[in-house]
Amino acid sequence: MEWIKPNINFDFVGKMKPAFVLSIALIVISIASIVWHGGLNFGIDFAGGTLIQIKFQEEPSPDRIRSAFRAIGLTDSVIQKIGENEVVVRTAATQSDMGGLSDRIAESLASIQGKDTFEIRRVEVVGPKVGKDLTKKAILALVFSWIGMLIYIAWRFELLYAVGGILALVHDTVISIGALSLLDKEFTLTIVAALLTIVGYSINDTIVVFDRIRENARKNLKQPLREVINTSINETLSRTILTSFTVILVLLTLFFLGGAVIHDFAFVLLVGIAIGTYSSIFIASPIVLLFEEFKPTRSRGKSR
Amino acid sequence: MMSGIKWRAALAVAICLGALFFLTPTLVADLPTFWNDHLPTDKIHLGLDLQGGMHLVLEVDTDKAVDGTLLRTAGDLKETLMSKRVRFRQTQAAKTGLITYELPDGASRTAFEKVLKDNYPDIEVAVSEAREGREVVSLKINDKRSGEIRKLAVEQSLETIRNRVDQFGISEPEIIPQGDDRIIIQLPGIKDTQRAKNLIGRTALLEFKLVNEEYSVDEALRGNVPEGSMILHESRLDRESGRRIDTPILLKSATLMTGESLESAKVQISDRFGEPHVAIKFNAQGAKEFERITGANVKRRLAIVLDGVVHSAPVIQERIGGGNAQITGAFTMDEARDLAIVLRAGALPAPVKILEERTVGPSLGQDSIDQGMWSILVGGILVIIFMMIYYRWAGVAADFAVILNIIIILGALAAFRATLTLPGIAGIVLVIGMAVDANVLILERVREELRSGKTPRAAIEAGYGKAFLTILDSNVTTLIAALFLFGFGTGPIKGFAVTLSIGIVVSMFTAIFVTRIIFDYFVWNRKIQTVSV
């Protein structure tokens, strides 16, 4: 079977301008959405607070749950239905010592809802201090992963390629976060894991194209870089599409079958992989071309 | 060339068998005896999110430990100063971590500083000023010593908590320090989380103090607490209403004894009400001390104070020898048992605070395992079918590599005793999707070479050769991301980074090495003329 015909020669580089416009639009929408929502919807991992997953024997009434929480002074609880008779309740952090909070909630719920009519399946209590630490760590991990890639690509290829690749990465990360923000989904630890995976995957995709550019450039020194890049993207297109297809295939199974905890994780990965595939075709290499055109010394495809 | 294939095939089979070997304890329920005796029996270790349990992050309040040392030293210093006839007055400290003295003149100050220098190397002057002709000096514990105290406090807390958890009887607990002043505790399979938290988080400082009977409590409550005394509350269970009643009680601040000199503590049932109480026994030195104290204070009330709450304050009838005492206070059986545990394990050197708690019930864990396994199965089958349709026989070779990949990842998890978490399972599913990438790179390359008119043998040779560096470069970058993820992550996320990293490395091996064996076998041995790619 062949989805992409071998002699395909689509002018990807020629579509650079509309692609840039589209990307900038997506980034602007992402940032606007984040601003519109008043920042990201940080989960308790980062903002601190309590999360309780409760499974009831019968359809629970949100009002009752809310009043159970209000009874012990937790006024702004958010109740989310995640499955049959199952809810996740979140409240903001109010105390510094979170020790007994979950048990008080269980007690209060038992007195309102009746004992043994529910099962508390998951409790997460994160103090504000831990949240702050995790936020710092998450940002550092993301930024350092970018720097790590920058150094590796600069070493294996050339600084310009590295810059192109990293810009594409930042682009992917911002748009993935934007998608989260647009749907007002929670930003949690697992989401950070997903973002880092997107970083890894997207650069993987980009490198395959870069690698082909390097090879073709050496093979045909006379050919202008613009054509080399276009040929290379076309030659690797089949692989790019196929790999993304299989990854998206497994992500869809995770999205539908992986359960509530994995759901958002799979969602961000789906968005990120799609954007990452797009950016390695339309963004990363054209950026290299843009840089090269500013810089007349055409030292491309450094030897290894 | 054939012998080359044989060697490579042997290596691949050996690795596969090795993975299966480490997986055997996980897959086989009843292992034969010889296996249990001589071979690894570790199952794949499941994270708390899969097997259920509690994850706690505690913060040791090391400031309190430093403060405690400072206060003790201050008591000592007071006596030394008095014996050396230095005139001074201890005043209210401006902030915690300091004690402030007021000295009437320069001569006292010199004498004061000499005492400090000669006897208390751990203490230094933090602030000093002249106020209305007097010298006001604030002391603190110097940085070196306070650093030591902090470190020691965390180490001791760790040890004490470990003791408590061991005695509570939780299998495979994990108690490790994190950063400067934090302790991570993982208790798999724990049911009564509240009880466990009480057991772990309580300071369990047992003190014996005399009741100040010369002075009225009511007067003290009005704000006139006499010097050297303090108000604490006695908590008592009212048998009729079932409520706890707090009664204020005036105590002399001086602690006569602490739980440090305890030898044992156990639960006993008292005859009168059939209620449990905790019987404590002092060690030899403690017993002597206890005898002296009770002897000197006959007919007075001695309060037993636990973590600032008075449990009982009985009247000492006579001198008590033998070092036995009991703590009563209307406990339930569990409460008494836990109190005995914490008293035996000793007090925490400083209070601890729960910063983070994550509890997963066993039923949710099982659901997650089921959903995870189902995802692996469905995702795997979808990818396998797709590869077969798209690349035909070459796809079958790639599928073989994918299956091998999953086996090796699981085997490696068991062998390295890594923890499998729910995100970890997601990582395996993701790796299934990404593992075919290396194969796709190679096969696309082989197709290209075939199109350029090469023979199958040459095309495969060139395909693998050219794809190798691409695969290496692209996977190294993904690995870099996974490593940062590992460094950043907590529990479940680390599990994801682990399966992702192992998966990437293994997929390179299976794609480059294993599938090559299959191709070479058919091209060299069976001398096929067309490659089904």
Short description:
Chain A is α+β, with helices and mostly antiparallel strands. Chain A has 10 helices and 4 strands, in the order ααβαββαβαααααα.
Characterization of the model:
The complex is a heterodimer of chains A (304) and B (533). With 304 residues, chain A is an alpha+beta fold. Chain A has helices at residues 16-36, 44-47, 62-71, 101-113, 128-156, 159-182, 189-219, 225-257, 260-282, 284-294, and strands spanning 49-56, 78-83, 86-92, 118-126. In chain A, a hairpin with a 2-residue loop joins strand 2 and strand 3 (86-92). The two termini of chain A are 35 Å apart. Residues 300-304 of chain A have low confidence and may be disordered. With 533 residues, chain B is of the alpha+beta class. In chain B, strands 11-10-16-15-9-12 form a 6-stranded mixed sheet. The longest helix of chain B has 54 residues, at 362-415. Classes of the chains: A alpha+beta (304), B alpha+beta (533). Chains A and B meet through strand 4, helix 5, helix 7, helix 8 and helix 9 of A and helix 7, strand 18, helix 11, helix 12 and helix 13 of B. Strand 4 (118-126) of chain A pairs antiparallel with strand 18 (352-360) of chain B, so a sheet runs across the interface.
Which helices and strands appear, and what pairs or packs with what?
The complex is a heterodimer of chains A (304) and B (533).
Chain A: H1 16-36, H2 44-47, E1 49-56, H3 62-71, E2 78-83, E3 86-92, H4 101-113, E4 118-126, H5 128-156, H6 159-182, H7 189-219, H8 225-257, H9 260-282, H10 284-294
Antiparallel strand pairs in A: 1-3, 1-4, 2-3
Chain B: H1 2-27, H2 33-38, E1 45-46, H3 48-51, E2 53-60, H4 62-83, E3 89-91, E4 99-103, H5 106-119, E5 123-131, E6 134-141, H6 143-168, E7 174-178, E8 182-188, H7 193-201, E9 206-210, H8 217-221, E10 229-237, E11 244-252, E12 257-258, E13 262-269, E14 276-282, H9 284-296, E15 302-306, E16 309-312, E17 324-327, H10 333-345, E18 352-360, H11 362-415, E19 419-420, H12 422-451, H13 456-488, H14 491-525
Parallel strand pairs in B: 1-19, 10-16
Antiparallel strand pairs in B: 2-8, 2-18, 3-4, 4-6, 5-6, 7-8, 9-12, 9-15, 10-11, 13-14, 14-17, 15-16
Helix pairs in contact in B: 1-11, 1-14, 4-6, 6-7, 6-10, 11-12, 11-14, 12-13, 12-14, 13-14
